[in-house]
Amino acid sequence: MFKALLKKQLIELSSFIILDRKTGKKRTTGKSVMYILLYLVLFFTIGFTFYGMGATLAEVAVSFDLDWFYFAFAGIITLMLGVFGDVFNTYSTVYRPKDNDLLLSMPIKPSMILTVRMFSVYLIGLLYEAAVMIPMSIAYWMNAEITPLRIILPILFLFILNFLVISITCVLGWIVAIVANKLKNKAIVTSVMTVGFIAIIYFLSYQMQNLAYTLSENIQGISSSIQTSVYPLYVMGKGVSGDIPFFLLFTLFCVLIAAITLYVMSRSFIKLATTSHSEKKNKYKEQTTKQNSIQNALVKKELLKFRSSSAYLLNSGLSLFILPVLGIVAVVMKSTINTTLGQAYAELPALQNAMPVIITAAVCLTAGMDTIAAPSVSLEGKNLWILKSMPIPTYEILLAKQQPHVILNSIASAVASILLGIAFNFDLPIIIFMIVCTSVFNMVTAKICILLGLKFAILSWTMEAIAIKQNIGTMLALFAALVLTLIIGGAYFAVMNKLTVNIYLIIVIAVLVLAARLLDRVIKTKGVALFNAL
Amino acid sequence: MLKIEHLTKSYGEKKAVDDLSLHINQGEIYGFIGHNGAGKTTTLKCIAGIQPFDQGDIFINGHSIKTDPTECKRSLAYIPDNPDLYDFMTGIQFLNFVADIFQVSVTDRKDRIKKYADVFSLTDDLNQSVASYSHGMKQKLAIISALIHNPVVIVMDEPFVGLDPKAAHSLKLIMREICDNGGAIFFSTHVLEVAEKLCDKISIIKQGKLIKYGTMEEVKGDTSLEDVFLELES
Fold it and tell me: Does B129 lie at the interface with A, CB-CB under 8 angstroms?
């Protein structure tokens, strides 16, 4: 029975490579191999970053005979990435799988179902952690004297640390499940929580880098203070660097924590797995309503959809959070920015003239990462009949689908432009040009998004994330926005001796308006035809 | 009111609807029966303007769905077999959305929401999100949203599935009321007893082709509709 359950779980786990989520059919071997290669490229790209970070630190740590500190540092980063990567997987695998009812109705012990699910969580966690720990171990081996123990222990550590990771993700996944059940504006709160979580991870990573720098300055002082104040970290680092008793102690700690977690969860698994999502009943009372125009009603509907889904908010609208934060950070760091820029301008005077264009391109680049309009057609899914059966010209529907993209991105871009303009001491006309330029840019990207979203629409999805993330249209829209930004930023350097920044920005705005009008024509003809054929 | 002329729709090699012609007049409740996969849903989707078709045309109130789809849809309401509605809206948000699209005045929409939500015992639940609705509640909401703009022609695909007996009874009364007031209803069903009692006319479809149609008496004669249907299907 356990074998059958495990087989089911492994099929489910590998389905993202074997099965085409659009059609539900099996992919060809060639396509599956392509997907594996794609994931390997991603794995190596992430790994290369951590190798770079590890190489710098390993050299210093090994030279000061503080190998334990290196592994403490590597362990913390591995733990953070493992938890971050695996927490939502834990939530969906352990707390919200679709087949809980089916399995619970079968003669299988709940603890067995949980164990199999935890195994799946363990494997995914291992993948995330390997992306950090393997390159950081290689970086260590390149700098330290290699012994069999120094090779075996970091690899073993990866498997042992994972017990701690899954214990933490189970607790966090449980919190996510409770929050998801209780909250009214789930999507927004989940998105804010995720962005906050990313910010914390970045902050901690930043602090880690600072720590590495400080280490080289005052290595013995720092290490002794860590040894005394964060003793578990010392035990972990010391163990992986070759101290067997410490390694065993750390192993015992991780296994014990995992065993307690598994025990507690298996005791309450049925309750956890069958908790209903029922919301508190709020009896309807007649309210004052006002009649909206058709276009307003459609736009309101699109906005409602956008704010109701955390997957949509985070994957297609992350820059709405990033842009204002970018502006605020720039204003806070205004003096540092201007001091640094003053020195740069002295050496490279042309940079001063180019700065408004560079900043405009930076805002466009960030806004271009938002692809709100791209998955909006796919997200209609089984609901497409509603719009298609309504007396609305198709162009109106497509226009409404562009509006949240244009409105929200333009507001975020305008806030960022104003704040960045203040931080970089730009003149008012430049700030106004920046606002107009980024707004028109958002109009163009919205139209590109809608066309690509129509061309590569996926309507038969089973999970919203497929329509949002695994959509070629979205990926191409991201690429198009990147190319457009590079053209906006790059073309200036070709004409900077002939045009002032103001004139250049006016030309960019004019070209973007023209592009928007041309794309609009394509939407009116080909876009409408594509929608009608869906 | 609803004219289907030589409608043909294929999915690849397979003809789902084959040269189907049918006229539904004012005041008629027209039943549409056939086995699973006979082409009922495809026909109804073509009428509602959801599905493009290969040949023929459909006219609603004299307007062609091919050349003037928006005008056709203004006087039409469609209720699908599976009420997939916007999960991210509450019941009342969905009804107001539909009312906005059909430009129903505030007074009219209030009156109709109150009338039909009371009839289908859904009033208390209108503030709940559609995601929390049962299949039957979604079906009720789909029916109310279809009636909110006072349509002249209603196309329904298995409208009684999921409804409780009281709601099913209410729907039958509403269907008759609409037709008595000059409307027309074309609906598919597998419940032959309902079709026999409710319909003025009936049509039977088999492998995309209309094999029998006419008034209830013309189709069933002295036997029951079930007997006729089973004989034609054999």
Answer: yes
Structural domain count of chain B: 1
pLDDT of A386 > 90? The answer is yes
Is some CB atom of chain A closer than 8 A to the CB atom of B70?
A: yes
Q: Going by C-beta distance under 8 Å and a sequence separation of 6 or more, which residues neighbour residue A410?
A: A438, A439, A442
Write out residues 24-53 of B within 8 Å (CB-CB) of A: 45, 48-50, 52
CATH number of the domain that residue B13 is part of: 3.40.50.300
Task: Extract the residue ranges of chain B whose pLDDT is less than 50.
Answer: none
pLDDT at position A398: 95
* Interface residue A252 vs chain B (CB under 8 A): no
pLDDT band for position A277 (cuts 50, 70, 90): low
Question: A91-128: per-residue pLDDT in tens?
Answer: 777 776 767 777 777 777 777 888 888 888 888 888 88
A416 phi and psi angles, rounded to 5 deg:
-65, -40
Which of A284, A296, A305 is opposite residue B127, by nearest beta carbon? A284
| CA distances to A24, A37, A270, B16 from A466, in Å | 12, 20, 29, 30
CA A290 to chain B, closest CA, distance in angstroms equals 6
Chain A interface includes B228 (CB < 8 A): no
* Angle, vertex CA A420, rays to CA A417 and CA A422, nearest 5: 105
Q: How many residues does chain B have?
A: 234
Residue B108 belongs to what domain range?
A: 2-233
Instruction: Give the dihedral sign, CA A43/A45/A49/A54.
Output: positive
Beta-sheet pairing, B63-64 with B55-60? antiparallel
Q: What is the pLDDT of residues B178-201, one digit of tens each?
A: 999 999 999 999 888 888 888 999
3-class SS string, A463-495: CHHHHHCCCHHHHHHHHHHHHHHHHHHHHHHHH
- Tokens encoding B50: 């959801």
| Averaged pLDDT for residues A199-209 | 63
Which amino acid appears at position A147 of this protein?
T
> Could you tell me if A287 lies within 8 Å of chain B, comparing CB atoms?
yes
Interchain pair B106, A291: CB under 8 A? yes
Which of B97, B101, B106 lies at the smallest CB-CB distance from A290? B106
Asked if the Cβ–Cβ distance from B128 to A279 is below 8 Å, we say yes
Cβ(A42)–Cβ(A17) below 8 Å: no
Q: Residue ranges per domain, chain A?
A: 28-274, 295-533
List chain B residues with CB under 8 Å of A300. 97
- Spatial separation of the C-alpha atoms in residues B32 and A223, rounded to whole Å: 82
The structure's pTM equals: 0.73
Other CB atoms within 10 Å distance of the CB of residue A118: 22
Q: Are residues B132 and A279, on separate chains, in Cβ contact within 8 Å?
A: yes
Contact B155, B79 (CB under 8 A): yes
Pair A125, A166: CB distance under 8 Å: yes
Question: Is B152:B1 a contact under the CB 8 Å cutoff?
Answer: yes
Listed residue (A161, A321, A151, A158) closest to A242, CA to CA: A151
For range A393-418, the mean pLDDT = 94
Per the prediction, chain A carries an average pLDDT of 84
pLDDT at A175 over 60: yes
Q: What is the H or E stretch that residue A147 is in? A: none
Instruction: Name the nearest CA neighbour of B157 among B65, B25, B40, B53.
Output: B40
Residues from chain A contacting residue B128 (CB–CB below 8 Å): 279, 281-282
Q: Please give the structure tokens belonging to residue B212.
A: 């029998």
- Distance in angstroms (rounded) separating the CA atoms of residues A134 and A153: 12
Task: For an interface test with B, give the residue of A185, A280, A387, A389 to mutate (most B CBs within 10 A).
Answer: A389
Percent of chain B with pLDDT over 90: 59
Q: Do B92 and A282 touch (CB under 8 A)?
A: no
DSSP E strands, A190-265: none
Give the nearest chain B residue to A307 (CA atoms): B88
